[in-house]
Amino acid sequence: MADYYVLFLKNVLVVSLAMNMGLIWRMRYEDEENLTPSWGNMLHLHGSGLYAQKNSRIQEEEEEEEEAHASKKTHILTTTLSSAAPDGLESVVINLDHGDPTMYEEFWKQKGEETTVVTSSWQHISYFSDVNNVCWFLEPGLVSAITALHRTVGNAVTEGRHIVVGTGSSQLYQAALYALSPVDGPGPMNVVSAAPFYSSYPLMTDYLKSELHKWAGDAYKFNKEEPYIELVTSPNNPDGFTRQDVVKGDKGILIHDLAYYWPQYTPILSPADYDIMLFTVSKSTGHAGSRIGWAVVKDREIAKKMTTFIEINTIGVSKESQIRAAKILQAVSDGCIHHNRKEAETNFFDYSYKLMAERWKRIREAVNKTTLFSLPSFPQETCSFSGRTFGQLPAFAWLKCEGEIDDCESFLRRHKVITRSGKHFGASMKYVRVSMLSRESEFKLLTERLPAIKT
């Protein structure tokens, strides 16, 4: 009888292993067209290993969103460069759709205890940080670190301004729209940005179908005699160019998204001095997972309304994330001030500038080896922070497919390179946005694959 039970358990184990391997295989290959498994299906797995049945209405909404946003079609990164890849490196999918700043990991690994934050369980229990501040949940240490970094780099005026912290600059963008849109207006406030514009602007603007504001498209095409909010992203996402406002109307309000106005991406020419300026640690230092952004706001009432939006939305911002961000920003400032040329790794902006310059050199060399692609050129300017003279080194490459290739995203997808189509940025499908911020293994594979692609 004992032998019978042993045999029975062995059979059960074999069947269980087979079912799990089948599930893994299905998850890996269930979406052949998109090359990678979808976030949606991954999140709808039951504990039993069976896919949940989706409600038809939810399915339709997801399909609409998938059409509207390329990131819903690019899914999970699968570029582990494992030697177990069945067809060698040619079979590896390179996902460069998202601007995930993993490029910065190596620098921060060197810092160790210098940027480590330890908190006790009794700390940070209260909702409140500084009740005398307009943004009452903003940690004083983060205020000091932000103002010190802007002063050191010289990229933004902070004196006499109000700082509002948010869960990333995306929340701050929505807070700014709320603060700038009159509640008693004749209709929703028009929101515009010059194409190619950041692909998430239309989605975030219209996501809640608010009666306060609506996406009105390309600023170059806006000619209504109505109030409007213009988003000025400089350097621009996706093409990397320096931007100014376009509409020039007398009924407009400007929001300046300066996420990339840092010396590893662009020459710093002067301190930015605008009414509302948005920044984020995700692109300044690479800590996207901390979800911390800040707005530098001139008008107190606008800052109060933005704070109210975040208060209603999330009742503040995580103190742990703020304290971690403050520690990192302060370390960046200290590294710039005490920088020794013999120890370049202590200066974050020196390190990251050299890395970005080297990557742009390599991708231009790769593109120049083929007639299928082209990249924009940028004028040389002198950076007031570093003293270097250089052109833009954007976080994204605005790659164009030349000749008869009309859908660049689909063309590259067939060669297992995942990018985001120009159509999501209000531009031609001959363009794609390619992240320059990936890990070295992925970037190296990209620069090797591009010249080898044939029509």
Would you give an account of this structure?
- The chain is an alpha/beta fold.
- The radius of gyration is 24 Å and the shape is globular.
- Residues 17-86 have low confidence and may be disordered.
- Strands 2-8-7-6-5-3-4 form a seven-stranded mixed sheet.
- The chain folds into three domains: 2-68, no CATH class; 88-106 and 345-452, Aspartate Aminotransferase, domain 1 (Alpha-Beta Complex); 121-337, Type I PLP-dependent aspartate aminotransferase-like (Major domain) (Aspartate Aminotransferase, domain 2, 3-Layer(aba) Sandwich).
- The chain has helices at 2-29, 39-43, 56-68, 105-109, 140-153, 168-180, 200-206, 281-284, 300-314, 319-337, 348-368, 408-414, 440-449, and strands at residues 94-95, 162-166, 189-193, 213-218, 228-233, 252-257, 276-280, 293-297, 373-374, 381-382, 389-390, 396-401, 417-418, 420-421, 431-435.
- The protein is built from 13 helices and 15 strands.
